[in-house]
Amino acid sequence: MQQSRPPKTAREPLRNGGSSMLESDLENHQAQLSRFQLHVTSVTEDIVTMSKLSQHHLDLKKTLVSEPHSPDVHDKLI
Questions:
Q1: Which residues contact residue 37 at a Cβ distance below 8 angstroms, ignoring those fewer than 6 apart?
Q2: Could you give the CA distance from residue 51 to residue 45 in angstroms, rounded to a whole number?
Q3: How many Å apart are CA 50 and CA 75, to the nearest integer?
Q4: pLDDT tens across 30-74, in order?
Q5: Which of 18, 47, 52, 56 could disulfide-pair with 12, CB 3.0 to 4.6 Å?
Q6: Which stretches does the entry tag as region Disordered (predicted)?
Q7: Cα separations (Å) of 19 from 6, 7, 31?
Q8: Which residues fall within 8 angstroms of residue 77, CB to CB, at 6 or more apart?
């Protein structure tokens, strides 16, 4: 049993469901964190993919500039 009064900054005592509210809030925050981490991973993978694609595109342009196969293809890529 608690013998002293709770601090004035306490919004709710941890009785009568207070701890279950904290647990619910914690689960909610953990779920939000998990979703955010998945989103960060997805965006990071997209950045890497776009970087590789951009580099491949530049390599193709360099190849076509040094050895053009046909003017039509060369003009479309540059």
A1: none
A2: 10
A3: 23
A4: 999 999 999 999 999 999 999 999 999 999 999 988 875 665 655
A5: 18
A6: 1-28
A7: 15, 17, 18
A8: 60, 61, 64
3-class SS string, 8-23: CCCCCCCCCCHHHHHH
DSSP 3-state percent helix, strand, coil across the chain (nearest 5): 70, 0, 30
pTM above 0.85, yes or no: no
CA atoms of 49 and 53, how far apart (whole Å): 6
Could you give the CA distance from residue 42 to residue 65 in angstroms, rounded to a whole number? 35
- How distant is the alpha carbon of residue 47 from its chain centre? 11
CA separation for the pair 37, 56 (Å, rounded):
29
3-state secondary structure at position 5: coil
